Amino acid sequence: MSMDIWLTFLCASILLSLIPGAGAISTMSNTIRHGFKSTLINNLGLQTGNLINIIIVGAGLGALLAKSETAFSVIKWIGVIYLIYLGYQKYREAGEISLNQGNNVSTSYMKLFSKAIIVNITNPKSIMFLVALLPQFLTASGSHWYQLAVLGTTMIVVDLLIMIGYSLLATRLMRIVKDARHMKLQNQIFGSLFIGAGALLGLSSH
């Protein structure tokens, strides 16, 4: 894997992790309710869920690549189209998110950990992100599992650090996520970035 490919994937991973989603909401919510220490446990659960998704998706893509490069290319293009679609949806998204995940979260570390795993492995967007993103950076010429290990480790470390950042800034972020105008602008910025990323990946597929 070349440095250029890895740096591009690193930028994509940072972009994906920065967008407030189920993981970010879970992190901020638990920080506000239980404090920073408990959120570290929640974060480890989120990354365990990410790891499970990466292995499942990566194994499926590896089998597909071994069977048919044509089918793999079709999946890559579907991923490009999906990323552009997500960008369009994000651009038009409402300008507010709720941190009320409900729910009397227990302070038990094991419960926090297991609930965080479930947040990611039951989140269809998380899996679809991986299906859309990973094929763009996997090549038939290199070791599939080596590439997957590099990309997966990069994604998990990036998400871990950004979730810690969300936790540390939870109090300030509370003001932002409740401000519809600021959130609308953020959605438009990230939506535009997604559309641009999808278009660039599509061009690079040539």
From TrEMBL:
It is found in: Cell membrane. One of its GO terms (cellular component) is plasma membrane. It is a multi-pass membrane protein. It comes from the Bacteria. The chain crosses the membrane at residues 48-66, 117-138, 144-169. Its main location: membrane. The keyword Cell membrane applies. Pfam families: LysE. GO terms for molecular function: homoserine transmembrane transporter activity. Keywords: Cell membrane, Membrane, Transmembrane, Transmembrane helix. Belongs to the Rht family. This is Homoserine/homoserine lactone efflux protein. It comes from Photobacterium angustum.
